[in-house]
Write a structure and sequence with these properties.
By secondary structure, this protein is mainly beta. It is 14% helix and 42% strand. Strand 8 and strand 9 form a beta hairpin. 24% of the residues are buried. The model has no long low-confidence stretch (mean pLDDT 85).
């Protein structure tokens, strides 16, 4: 778990509602996992996966009964981030506003530090 000096990762109400909607169609005990991977057009990219297990070093971000798991390494790249869900002309997607990202790209899932 991050120490008290680490900015929290926040899940918006819209994102929590979408997580619940997605997981309602999955097997019981399913969770949404967000991770940061090397690659993407800006250096790092976010990955969204449905899983069944919580690892010992996972950080749980919870709001309104919805939980997202983030591994301890990825949390280091997401300090202070806000996870939102948007439905606009470009489509529906989770969007992460990450204060640690120096730049991003048009795809919305890639960033650099």
């Amino acid at each position: 778990m991050p120490d008290s000096g680490t900015p929290p990762i926040t899940l918006t109400e819209r994102a929590a509602q979408r997580v619940q909607a997605i997981l309602s169609r999955e097997p019981e005990q399913s969770v949404l996992r967000i991770s940061v991977n090397g690659g993407g057009c800006s250096g790092f990219s976010y990955a969204f996966d449905i899983g069944q297990e919580k690892n010992a070093d996972d950080i749980a971000v919870t709001r309104d009964g919805a939980t997202v798991l983030i591994d301890a390494v990825s949390v280091e790249y997401m300090k202070g981030a806000t996870i939102d869900f948007v439905d606009d002309l470009m489509g529906q997607s989770f969007r992460i506003e990450n204060p640690m990202a120096a730049s991003g790209c048009g795809c919305g899932t890639s960033f650099s530090l």
